[in-house]
Amino acid sequence: MKEVVLMFFVSVFAYIHYSYAQTIKFEDLEFDIVNVKASSTLLNGEKVIKVERDLDKLPFDANRLGATVDEPTFIKMKNVDFADGVIEVKMLSKIQNPSPFEAARGFIGIAYRIKEDNSAFDAIYLRPTNGRADNQFMRNHTVQYYAYPDYKFDRLRKEANGEYETYADIGLNEWISIRIEIKDKKAVLFINNQKYPSFIVSEMKGNTNSGSIGLWVDIGTEGYFKDFKFTKTPLKK
User: Fold this and answer.
1) Which of 20-34, 141-155, 172-186, 199-213 has the lowest mean pLDDT?
2) What is the CA radius of gyration of the chain?
3) Rounded CA separation 19/32 (Å)
4) Better pLDDT: 147 or 18
5) Which end of the chain is flanked by fewer CB atoms within 10 Å, N or C?
6) Cα separations (Å) of 202 from 33, 44, 185?
7) What Cα–Cα distance (Å) separates residue 91 from each residue in 15, 151, 155?
8) Distance of alpha carbon 136 from the chain centroid
9) Where is 39: in which H helix or E strand?
10) C-alpha distances in Å from residue 190, one per residue of 107, 148, 230
11) In 3-state terms, what secondary structure has residue 232?
12) Average pLDDT of the chain, as a whole number
């Protein structure tokens, strides 16, 4: 009988711990945890949120790169329906040590218009390592747009002739300010409070009109976020 009772309490504790682990609160906001590990922590004395891809939940295969990257790997705001407006955040990325992917670039960014079941969304992310590379080809791939699930980086690179990627002067281990202005099918990215945009997506490929917002990372990245905020454009009456 004692063993049965003990097993019951262990099972209940495991369930509570598992349920709690599926959400996280930060800066008075609550997020669902989707295929990542997330925690509130201190970085250089500042309270930030740390996000890393969870390879147990969503494995990665370097031999099937296009099929196993650019996935729903983010913490996603609860109870938010965002269509048009402005998203702002500061982000910093490091390469995991050891890294599960030797070509890791510190992949970090924002997903938006995330469908409730995470089956579709748009995203813009950074490859900070590329921003200071000696190779111009790599520099040209510092900023990336993609639309999950049909238009990942590899398809867009083949079909769009560089339209969905660009260069930006950014690097690892430094805070990068991001501002994305979204309206209809257009997204405009401003980096580090510059007056003019660093990147313009004139025709987004996503098939969702609205949804949640996510703080996104990918393989081999320790991602840190702070000062997250968004403003929705009021619907026209």
Assistant:
1) 20-34
2) 19
3) 11
4) 147
5) C
6) 30, 38, 7
7) 32, 24, 26
8) 25
9) strand 36-43
10) 17, 22, 14
11) strand
12) 91
